[in-house]
Flavin oxidoreductase (Novosphingobium endophyticum), 174 residues
Amino acid sequence: MPSSFFVSCPDTVQAPADGEQVREDFRLAMRRMAAAVAIVTCRKGDEWLGITATSMTSLSMDPPSLLICVNRSASIRAALEPDAAFTANLLERRHKPVSDAFGGRAMGKERFSFGHWGTCERGVPMLRDAIAAIQCKVDREVEYGTHTIVIGRVLNTCLSDEMNPLVYVNGNYQ
């Protein structure tokens, strides 16, 4: 096989790279991992909050639970307190403008002018035409590095017939 099919790693064990090099190499490695794109939403009082998230996965089927990682500096972080309700809205390919808006191209409530939004029974914003809208309550939180790992207990799931998820890999949507 051509050598381009192999991972570029030395054959012998070397001393660990410095911290900055490890971070950069790890960042480049994570760009190679495709991730589904979701908008995580919640509310604090009358204010709707939301962020684009790619660091999300199912955690357990019993009890049904979801794990999301939220940067501590994100505006939504303070609202994701124990027992708070949130929704993980899984995006379809046509939702790229929604993802961009929640990823920083729009701020505050202006983000919700992108997409067709309603609310679920707990008053949390829900993207009406999402592939799936997974409604949760915060069960646990773990602080780690720059992020908070939020474990959500699934309360309800709304599904559409769409099956063309928006995926993010190497800095681009697929």
Remarks:
- The mean pLDDT is 91.
- The two ends are 28 Å apart (CA to CA).
